[in-house]
Amino acid sequence: MSMVQTLASKLTLTTDLSPVERDRNYKGRIRQIFSTISAHPLQTLLINLMGVVFWAPLFILIFYILPYVGEAGVLANYTFAGSLGIGYGATDPAVIAQAIQELYDVRILYTACYVIPCVMFASIGMSGVYNCMRNLLWGVECKTLKHFFVGIKRHWYKFLIVYTVLAAIAVGFLVSLLNIRAGFETGYGASAGWWVLMIFMGIIGLLAAMYSMILLPMLVTYKYDTKWYKNFAICLKNSGIIVCISPLQIMFVTLLIAAPMALCLIKSIALWIVVILGVYGIVFYVLTNIAYSQFYSDNYIFFLYNRNMEEAKKQQAREAKAYRDQKAKQNKQNNTSNKKRKKK
After folding, report:
1. Spatial contact of 217 and 134, defined as CB atoms under 8 Å apart
2. Where are the beta strands (DSSP E) in 9-159?
3. DSSP state of 92
């Protein structure tokens, strides 16, 4: 038995919540994503805007509060007269370095204190977005407002756990990155500890993102147990097994999806990326996530579940046939015995 077969045998099997007649042999998952959006353009736009409402606090923090409140408050305490070209009245380099350090201190403070709460709030809206986009992808009824809030009611706490962990990892990475940049720009350099932390959090972040690529859609597409924490634990286990089965493919797709979000770190184009995400970016990301996770669900969990059910039916048929044969044999023996008694 190969390693893939060994891992697949550990999966907890059941059918997902989609209709039984759902087509699971798609000609292309990417085509499925675009056809879903093109078939429901206004509805997906509305769902995306509802998601944007929940991400708005984070956008406001990054693009308004941090630059116009935090950083502006620091710069208001300094009067710079540098770069005059003649050396007269130039600002002391030590003062400039101090100002730069204070700017980074403010960025680190805002990142450490406010990013996690903003992402936690956004996770509540994402549970509604995932629920709506799951229905649209499956081709079942989706009443936008109703299913958005039904998704929040049923899944908000599960999404809150996942997004809080992801946010904490992201904050660890960003804080270490900001400290390294502050060290370079002030001329003092960064300690080795920040480099180690950044690399470590980067690796953990990549693994967590790969894990969530499979986990988040599972939370809205499967119900293994009536108790949410048992269902959550099974989804965690199944997601981990699937990531171990196809690590390179999942890593590639994760990096491909994360690339546009990583571009937000480039100030010159960050606003444009946010505008694009604000139109269709969230639903496109969620659809891609669900469709990709469904690929593994259909080809592993559903396939193995059906195979086990077929084997169970065959086993029942064999047992029923053996039982009938045994009864027929007993009846034959009884008839033979009765004939002998009559002759006597």
Report:
1. yes
2. none
3. P
pLDDT by residue, tens only, the chain of 344 residues: 578 888 888 888 888 888 877 777 767 788 888 888 889 999 999 999 999 999 999 989 988 898 888 888 888 877 765 544 444 445 567 777 888 888 899 999 999 999 999 999 999 999 999 999 999 999 888 999 999 999 999 999 999 999 999 999 999 999 999 999 888 888 777 788 999 999 999 999 999 999 999 999 999 999 888 888 899 999 999 999 999 999 999 999 998 888 877 777 676 777 777 777 778 889 999 999 999 999 898 888 888 888 888 888 888 878 777 778 777 777 766 666 665 555 55
What pTM value is reported for the model?
A: 0.86
DSSP 86: S
290 Cβ contact partners less than 8 Å away, ≥ 6 residues apart: 130, 133, 134, 137, 217, 220, 221
Please report which residue ranges of 222-302 form alpha helices under DSSP H.
228-245, 247-262, 267-276, 282-296
Count the Cβ atoms, other than its own, within 10 Å of residue 122.
24
Whole-number Å distance between alpha carbons of 138 and 133: 8
One-letter amino acid of 14: T
Among 312, 304, 307, 213, smallest CA distance to 12 is for 304
Positive or negative, the CA dihedral 330, 335, 336, 342 is positive
